[in-house]
Design a protein that fits this description.
homodimer, about 120 residues, alpha/beta, 2,3-Dihydroxybiphenyl 1,2-Dioxygenase, domain 1, 4-stranded mixed β-sheet, 3 helices, globular
């Protein structure tokens, strides 16, 4: 008797750019698209999925919600290289040099982190 | 060879208040707590979990990321009543009256939506 997180919604000025980025990051695919936005999801049917919503206004301040990722099927260093190759940018939100994670941002500046331990290491 | 969403991080001026709210909403529990924040998770080990991080600054604009919830184990109307009882507030972000979801916000004003279809209906 609770709620369940079904969707993470992300506002975007350019939904296609943001949706494509997150599809590449997560290995997901576009499952629905209309003038309001783009829904993306993994092939395994797991939740939450992501809805990228078209909005007119650009990001102005650091997001109060962000996603933390773990590399799945490769080392964290390899995944960092891959994310940078996809267009992720290293981002300084005042985290300093004493943290174990890497702060990045997506094409519209939405901050996210790559955590130091991989999925396998965190599950182990 | 991808990344996986492990954690949804939420900045909070009062981490305990925000963490307790989301524990109640999701039926989760506190799994770790220190001076930097509070980690909450479900008992089934599923990802993503939520980390509530202590920050000094208050929320100033509509969040660009938000969570969409589905009622799990009860009707959407019943779940809406329960969420309002937990301290969720009905929130106007310009959604109008023509949408199927209800926009709410948590104790620090983080917007979230209760979708019209329950978990069971969405899965069916």
């Amino acid at each position: 008797m609770t709620s369940r997180i079904a969707v993470i919604a992300i506002d975007a000025v350019q939904p296609r750019v943001v949706a494509d980025f997150w599809c590449n990051v997560l290995g997901w695919q576009v499952v629905e698209e209309d003038e309001t936005g783009i829904s993306i999801a993994g092939t395994d049917g797991s939740w939450p999925t992501i809805d990228v919503f078209a909005v007119p206004e650009r990001k102005t301040v650091k997001n109060r919600l962000h996603l933390d990722l773990r590399a799945d099927g490769m080392t964290t260093a390899e995944e960092l290289d891959r994310l940078l190759g996809l267009g992720a940018r290293r981002t300084d939100i005042g985290q300093g040099t004493d943290v174990s994670w890497v702060v990045l941002s997506d094409p519209e500046g939405n901050e996210f982190c790559l955590l130091s331990r991989t999925v396998e290491e965190a599950r182990g």
